[in-house]
Design brief:
The protein is of the alpha+beta class. The chain has two domains: 174 residues, Sandwich (Jelly Rolls), CATH 2.60.120; 215 residues, Rossmann fold (3-Layer(aba) Sandwich). 17% of the residues lie in helices and 28% in strands. The strands form seven sheets. Strands 3-20-19-21-22-25 form a six-stranded parallel beta sheet, sandwiched between helices. It has a five-stranded antiparallel beta sheet with strand order 1-12-7-18-2, covered by helices on one side. A hairpin with a 2-residue loop joins strand 8 and strand 9. Helix 4 packs parallel to helix 6.
């Protein structure tokens, strides 16, 4: 495969993540700052890889893309790694990309020729030069990417992207010609292999525009609650952000918790700097309480370690942490929680605390400002835990005892949390459109 052009990349070795100028967001004209703009999910699970035999080596993907604001001088961003529950996984490769955005309602497509991306191990993001003088207008669009790997290059099976291309806003396959696309055999057309991950578009963001990374566990990516109203992302954090003129990217992963996250978060922290993230909003802790032999004191310590990793690579970033909802056993799960069908979950005692006592202690610590360096906390526990028994969910707020349920009303489940967030506006966001 002939090399078309060598593109600008952010290759960041582990030893140089922190303080490296190459991961500092570039300045745009007129005081603008280059940031990832738009809203949506991101990344894959990096489950398996298949080598190209040189005859089946190209693919096409289609992604719905929404941005609440115009994106001047845009450039597509591709990631050279995937996020796992315990950090990140490199996907080294060489990929030739050609991305085209099709504007909402028609209009002239915007062609990003891209070029050859040498995704060496350690690459955080790769991107072509900005499309000077071009603006992606606010609204819903479709983004198609054609790609090619050389003979022996890898297609990575990324189970994260299983949204149907015609109805959703995740990535969907529209023409991958790799017949046997996973180690176990042929997989359906709603799952794809991507040599790298198309994340979105960088642009010249105006002063004050917020790009928020939604981090943490399965509640941060929407399990239980489900998709946001527009179907762009998942979960209550994204649902709070989606109606507002801000950008966000979901980087959470099911099963994640501070204990596991802190051990592989340096690259993710570097990624936040590379995309110009202004905020990091974390919903994590349930998995530590549910499955780990940890007391409240040690949980506070690992939360501080994780926060410090983020702050070291991102001076000035705003950081937020959600209080954790109840952890209960619901009889007959999945079924609506009631006052009588829940029991206090106890996976053993450590340091005098059972599972949910540790949660209550750490939540109070967050509310009291105990996590030094944190900009602030967001209240997720009180709207969904019973006032007469904090170890239980309010009626129908959960159906499995671990995740918020979307009841569609503002009095229970994710709706109650959203109503509380809208009233308090802890992140100081612009009003919903």
């Amino acid at each position: 495969m002939a090399q078309s052009s060598r593109v600008r990349q952010n290759k960041v070795a582990a030893a140089s993540y922190i303080g490296a100028g190459i991961i500092t967001p570039g300045a745009g004209g007129g005081g603008l700052t280059r940031r990832l703009m738009g809203q949506g999910r991101a990344f894959g699970d990096g489950l398996a890889g298949r080598k190209s035999d040189g005859t089946v080596n190209s693919f096409n993907t289609d992604k719905g893309y929404y941005t609440p604001v115009d994106i001047p001088n845009p450039a597509p961003i591709y990631a050279g790694f995937v996020i796992a529950a315990a950090g990140s996984v490199d996907v080294p490769n060489v990929v030739e990309y050609h991305t085209v955005l099709y504007p909402q309602g028609g209009g002239t497509p915007i062609d990003f020729s891209g070029g050859l991306f040498d995704v060496a191990s350690g690459t955080v993001i790769a991107k072509p030069a900005p499309k000077a003088g071009v603006t992606i207008p606010a609204g819903f669009h479709r983004v198609r990417t054609f790609g090619k790997v050389p003979s022996g290059g890898f297609f990575y099976y990324t189970g994260r992207f299983r949204t149907n291309a015609s109805t959703g806003h995740g990535v969907g396959e529209v023409g991958v010609d790799l017949a046997d696309k996973a180690t176990g055999g042929t997989i359906s057309s709603q799952a794809i292999n991507l040599p790298m991950t198309f994340l979105g578009f960088e642009g010249d963001a105006p002063a004050g525009h917020r790009t928020i990374a939604v981090a943490g566990d399965s509640n941060s990516e929407g399990i239980g609650y489900g998709a946001t109203p527009r179907g762009i992302g998942g979960g209550i954090l994204a649902a709070h952000l989606e109606p507002r003129p801000v950008s966000y990217i979901q980087i959470g992963r099911s099963g994640a918790g501070p204990i596991a996250m802190r051990n592989g978060y340096a690259k993710i922290a570097a990624f936040l700097a590379a995309i110009g993230a202004t905020d990091w909003w974390c919903h994590a802790g349930t998995n530590d309480y549910y499955g780990s032999n940890v007391n409240a004191t040690s949980e506070k310590a690992v939360m501080k370690q994780l926060l410090d990793i983020v702050l070291a690579a991102n001076p000035g970033i705003k950081t937020w942490w959600a209080t954790m909802p109840p952890i209960a056993a619901i009889a007959g799960s999945p079924t609506p929680a009631t006052a009588s069908n829940q029991s206090r979950l106890n996976s053993g005692t450590t340091g005098g605390y059972d599972t949910d006592d540790r949660r209550l202690v750490v939540n109070d610590w967050l509310r009291a400002g105990g996590l030094v360096g944190l900009t602030g906390y967001t209240e997720h526990a009180l709207p969904v835990q019973r006032s007469d028994d904090p170890y239980k969910w309010t009626d129908d707020s959960s159906r499995d005892g671990l995740h918020y349920y979307n009841t569609g009303v503002a009095t229970s489940g994710g709706g109650a949390v959203l109503a509380a967030l809208a009233l308090a506006n802890p992140l100081g966001l612009p009003a919903a459109a």
